[in-house]
Specification:
With 257 residues, the protein is mostly helical. It has one domain. Helices cover 79% and strands 0% of the residues. The chain is built from eleven helices and no strands. It starts with a helix and ends in a 5-residue tail after the last helix. The relative contact order is 0.16.
């Protein structure tokens, strides 16, 4: 546990020390939150309702966690590789999975703090959430699940893209394009039919829809995501992506200095 704790603390310090990271994963989603409430969704007759604003806030939380996992995780891994950290760790009695676990816990802590901050700002702007005990527990579960999947995607990118800037840019590009195609950053109803199907089964947009449905309103989500097929696929695909990242990291990352 000492190794996990030390990597956990190191990861948190690196995340908060990097002002660029904080801007793109916290400040930028907050800017989009303001734009979403007062500009992008303004034409919708329900845009001024508290529950609708809660949905916009949740989308920005998912926006933040995707950027955090897809871009900051590979950036940290690539930086450690370039500094020769993995080469040093290989000569020490350190388990790779413990190193990875510390990184994931660090990212999870960062995402949860960011989520609380974004939700607090959303409440100030008029958002009101459906905070029943069942709603909160299910939503937290899918938030953690989405964070693990995002960290998994970032770990895979960081494992194979060795250049620091290349790893970060690759992660940002994949995150921004995929969340746009899946309707994380704008209404599901705006998507064409093929992309609506993609949105239902892309783990991040699906988790976003489930959380929004539980904590805000179906009017914002655009459909009812609470069905056995979508929930099962979201859980399975998120876990699969996370497990795959662990396997690839432990087999290839420390060999790639």
């Amino acid at each position: 546990m000492r190794q996990v704790n030390s990597v956990f603390i190191k990861t948190i310090k690196e995340l908060y020390r990097n002002k660029t990271t904080v801007f793109w994963t916290v400040v930028w989603p907050v800017i989009f939150l303001f734009l979403g409430i007062f500009l992008f969704y303004r034409a919708d007759p329900l845009s001024g309702t508290p529950s609708f604003r809660a949905g916009i806030t949740i989308s920005m939380v998912v926006f933040s966690l995707m950027l955090s996992g897809f871009s900051t995780m590979p950036g940290i891994i690539a930086t450690d590789r370039s500094n020769g950290l993995f080469l040093k760790l290989r000569s020490m009695p350190i388990k790779q999975w413990r190193d990875l676990l510390g990184r994931i816990f660090g990212l999870l802590f960062y995402v949860l703090v960011s989520a609380v901050l974004i939700c607090a700002i959303g409440i100030v702007l008029g958002a009101r959430f459906n905070l029943g005990p069942g709603n909160i527990s299910v939503s937290l579960g899918f938030l953690v699940l989405a964070t693990l999947a995002a960290s998994g995607a970032g770990i895979i990118i960081g494992t194979f893209v060795k250049n620091i800037n290349g790893a970060v840019i690759t992660g940002v590009g994949i995150a921004v394009v995929s969340m746009s195609l899946a309707g994380v950053t704008f209404p599901y109803a705006f998507l064409p039919g093929a992309l609506q199907a993609f949105s239902r089964f892309y783990p991040f947009s699906s988790s976003n829809a489930i959380i929004s449905f539980m904590l805000s309103t179906e009017a914002f989500v655009g459909y009812n995501p609470i069905n056995a097929l979508q929930i099962s696929f979201t859980i399975a695909s998120s876990i699969l992506l996370f497990v795959l990242s662990i396997i690839l990291y432990t087999r290839f990352c420390w060999k790639a200095d």
